[in-house]
Design goal:
single chain; mainly alpha; two-stranded parallel ribbon; 7 helices
Length: 217
């Protein structure tokens, strides 16, 4: 990626007072973001509990295996954590990235196809947010086998922020862009992140989910 140094706000701060002001703003942003994550995850779990129950029953009725799919992903500082999702695929499915499947339809269950298209399979990640493993907005956590993408994120310090349910890359292509472009968007989020930007990403994500944009099987 040629445009690695899009710009670095911290490096551009020339005086000690500028740096102190930046630290204060960053602290306030982190506090508001975490408070927002906790409140939204608790409310989400309560309000979406009927969907959680219904989907759990449908998954169990259709195929054998656990209701919740747990998978190791790279989190903040590239440390692995278990992400929670509704199981949308058969238990014998290979552990590879979605984009690497050439025959994903063979493994996806009927209820799985529905919950993936509507992103309902992501709802259990509200518990990841409550635990502090994730945020609502941040780079999508990738499986540990995606070494190239993890190393690319490390080189741009993208792994220094919590992964999210949705992010800047998700509303700018999601499944239709390659690793370098994903990291470009993740880096843009890193240097521009703000509460207003987070709200914008959330709204745009909701619109894309309703339109089913940029989603593969």
């Amino acid at each position: 990626m040629d445009n690695k140094l899009i710009y670095n706000k911290v490096a551009s701060l020339s005086t000690a007072s500028d740096r102190e002001s930046h630290k204060e703003i960053n602290f306030i942003y982190k506090f508001i973001k975490r408070f927002f994550d906790i409140v939204c995850s608790i409310l989400g779990i309560i309000l979406l509990s009927p969907i959680l129950i219904i989907v759990s029953i449908l998954i169990k009725l259709e195929s054998k295996g656990p209701i919740i799919f747990k998978q190791l992903r790279a989190g903040k500082d590239s440390k692995p954590f278990y992400i929670y999702k509704f199981r949308s695929m058969k238990i014998e499915t290979p552990n590879i990235a979605t984009n690497d499947f050439t025959d994903s339809h063979v493994y996806i269950t009927r209820i799985g196809r529905i919950i993936r298209k509507t992103s309902i399979d992501e709802i259990p990640q509200l518990f990841n947010i409550l635990k502090g493993d994730m945020s609502i907005v941040g780079p999508r956590p990738v499986i540990l086998e995606e070494v190239d993408l993890i190393e690319l994120r490390q080189s741009y310090n993208v792994d220094k922020i919590l992964p999210g349910i949705t992010g800047w890359a998700q509303i700018n292509g999601r499944d239709n862009i390659g690793n370098e472009e994903k990291v470009k968007y993740d880096y843009e989020y890193l240097v521009n992140k703000s509460f207003i930007m987070d709200l914008y990403i959330i709204v745009m994500t909701a619109l894309k989910v309703l339109k089913r944009s940029d989603i593969k099987d």
